[in-house]
Amino acid sequence: MSEQPPYLRIADELRQRIAEHVWEPGDRLPSRAQIGQECGVGENVVRRAQELLISQGVLEGRAGSGTYVAEPRQRVRMVRSSAREQPEGSPFRADMKAVGRQGDWESRTDAKVPAPAEIAARLGIAEGELCVRTAYEFLADGRPVQLSTSWEPYDLTAGTLVVLPEGGPHAGAGVVNRMGAIGITVSHAVEQPEPRQATAEEASLLGIQKAALVTHIRRTYYSDQGRPVETADIVVPAAHCEIVYEIPISRA
Fold first, then answer.
1. What is the mean pLDDT of residues 77-104?
2. Is the model more confident about 164 or about 248?
3. What is the DSSP letter of 191?
4. What is the DSSP letter of 4?
5. DSSP 81-146
6. Which residue of 23, 34, 225, 234 is surrounded by the most CB atoms within 10 Å?
7. Between 248 and 153, whose confidence is greater?
8. Contacts from 15-19 at CB under 8 Å and sequence distance 24+?
9. Tell me: the pLDDT tens digits for 2-33?
10. DSSP secondary structure of the chain
11. C-alpha neighbours within 13 Å on the C-beta side of residue 106
């Protein structure tokens, strides 16, 4: 069996000191040189260990100040379930209300955006075909907790009242309800979650460390005719949110 990498050993040591209350939330850690000397490793090893713990929400780095033990933060629960699609209201707002928080979002829509190859494949259209792209930043008590970029085929909604997801009489109604307003029945969605590190832009928008762990969900809604009507990339910071899937059980 291979030996544990030194930075993981140091990360475990730092985590143990926090668990044993050697350092309390809000405490500033000793310098990397001091920790390295105590543990018999170089500063780069300590830096990697601290970066790992920062990505996990155990520590936080403050520019020009040092590294601190992070304050405990309740993880926001994100429920993924087709059963939560509602005729009125937002599942996100319902989730936030359930944990005593105010849910809201900001969005920016660009119409007639050529579809990149991956998006085109997910929507079953040709690369370069026009789409309506909407970027969302979801907020809990004013703090960002989720990002989403949605793509819809332009020819599907062009000339209708739902062409802009966040505009018109059906603004903010969600994909299922908006498509229903133009006679398209959404029958199901497919989601593919995977862990990865945040990009620099995502980290900036979410207020997390660069390369912190996130869950990236590729979601696609399908009509009852089997046509993809919307696809989205959803990004959720792992240290701040937990994702829960509800599985509806049909009874014969």
1. 74
2. 164
3. E
4. P
5. -GGG--SSS-HHHHHHHHTT--EEEEEEEEEEEEPPHHHHHHHTS-TT-EEEEEEEEEEETTEEEE
6. 234
7. 153
8. 15/53, 15/58, 18/58, 18/69
9. 578 899 999 999 999 999 999 999 999 999 99
10. -PPPPHHHHHHHHHHHHHHTTSS-TTPBPPPHHHHHHHHT--HHHHHHHHHHHHHTTSEEEETTTEEEEPPP-PPEEEEE-GGG--SSS-HHHHHHHHTT--EEEEEEEEEEEEPPHHHHHHHTS-TT-EEEEEEEEEEETTEEEEEEEEEEEHHHHTTSTTSSTTSSTTTTS-HHHHHHHTT--EEEEEEEEEEEEPPHHHHHHHT--TT-EEEEEEEEEEETTS-EEEEEEEEEETTTEEEEE-------
11. 10
Show the tokens assigned to 113: 């955006």
Q: Is the dihedral of CA 233, 234, 238, 244 positive or negative?
A: negative
Is residue 55 within 8 A of residue 203, CB to CB? The reply is no
Return d(Cα 68, Cα 84) in angstroms, integer. Answer: 39
Nearest to 180 by CA among 152, 151, 148, 157: 157
Alpha-carbon distance values, 22 to 39, 52, 100 (Å): 15, 19, 32
Distance (Å, whole) CA 122 – CA 220: 7
Query: What would the two tokens of residue 206 be?
Result: 């979410």
Instruction: Let me know: does 166 contact 138? Beta carbons within 8 Å.
Output: no
Identity (one letter) of the amino acid at 91?
Answer: P
Question: CA nearest 69: which of 47, 49, 53?
Answer: 53
